[in-house]
Every structure is written in C-alpha cells, then in structure tokens.
Amino acid sequence: MTDETDPDPSEEAPLLTTARLRLRARVPGDAAELFAEMSDPKVMAWWSRAPFGSESELRARFATRAEGRRAWAITRPGEDRAIGFVVAGERPQGGVSEIGYLLARHAQGQGLAQEAVARVVDHLFAQGQRRICADCDPENAASIALLERLGFRREGRLRAEWHTHMGLRDSLIYGLLATDRAGRA
Question: Residue 135: what pLDDT?
Fold first, then answer.
C-alpha cells in the first residue's frame, strides 16, 4: 500500500492504493457511474437521505466540497471508472473523523468495500487522527459486519436519530481508536 499525493494540489483526497484497488479523489463526473446505485431505493435504504432523482443532482452533490471532508472514488487499477466511494469528514472536536461508504452491487461480495475502508482508515490514522467513527442503521447487517471485521466497536444506539425517507430511524455508533488499530497490527 502506498500514499501518493495527486499532482493537482487542489485535490483534498490523496491517491491511495491497495493490491486490488486505486482510491482517487472523487469528482463530479463519478456521478455517471454511481447514479444507478444512488437512485435505487434498495441501495439507499440505509442512508439518511432519499435516493437521488437525477444524475445532475448527484453530480452537484459530488461537486460540493465541505471543509474538512475528503471523498475517494473506489476504482480498479488501470481503470478510472468509479465502483464506489469512501468519504471521511473531520469532526469539530479535532482528531476525529467520521466515515461513510458505498460500493456498487456488481462489485459487492469480493471484500472490496472492506479493503477500501481499511485503506482509508490506515491513511487517516497515519495523518494523526485518534478516532474514527461510523453511523449505521441497525438493520444494515452488511455494514455492521464490515465495521466489526475492521475492529470497530459498537459504542451506542441513538434512538430516533434520523428523520429519513423511511421515517424515524435509530442509529448505531461505531468507533475505532488509533490505539485499537495499533493493537491489531
């Protein structure tokens, strides 16, 4: 695995690689590849927002760069087509990031999401983050399993935390400390 800085200094997410993946800065053009997933009610069931209604709406969302937030498109080496993404937003208390992720259905079941999230987690800890957290719907068994395989611990349940397109939803909070990760190495 390598940390390489993109040649464009305006990019917020540095290029990260694994044996099977290339994680580059997510760009608005990635909306074309990911719209089918992000407009699907089944895929978006566990998100805190409704499915996207148009590719242009998703493109606009991908163009938004919130301060302290980095987004990586998941691609395969030698290809630039996005098959998913990992997002990391720095929390206001400093030293803490919250992650989120999505992987296209055709790429699921191969361990790629776990590989991509693990790589971003390693990068964030190498950059000095002390804690990484994730917020997950209690019925999202696949995401819960991924987080637990990576060593995240369930820290709590927030009742009626999100008012979503599915109504009021609870949220499970998972956390991983840099010291937890170091202990697993």
Answer: 95
Contact 133, 90 (CB under 8 A): no
Containing domain of residue 19, as a range? 2-184
**Residue 11 pLDDT grade (very low, low, confident, very high; cuts 50, 70, 90):** very low
CA pair distance 174, 151, nearest whole angstrom: 10
Q: Would you give the distance in Å from CA 152 to the centre of its chain?
A: 14
Structure-token match 């290339």, residue found: 22
Helices 141-149 and 112-126 pack at an angle, to 10 degrees, of: 50
CATH number at residue 24: 3.40.630.30
> What's the domain count of the chain?
1
Q: What is the model's pLDDT at position 7?
A: 34
Q: What is the mean pLDDT of residues 29-48?
A: 93
pLDDT digit string, tens, across residues 82-128? 999 999 999 988 899 999 999 999 999 999 999 999 999 999 999 99
Task: List, edge to edge, every strand of the sheet that includes 131-136.
Answer: 2-4, 15-17, 22-25, 69-75, 84-90, 96-103, 131-136, 167-177, 153-164
Q: Which of 98, 90, 122 is nearest to 171 (CA)?
A: 98
The beta-strand segments (E) located in 56-142 are: 69-75, 84-90, 96-103, 131-136
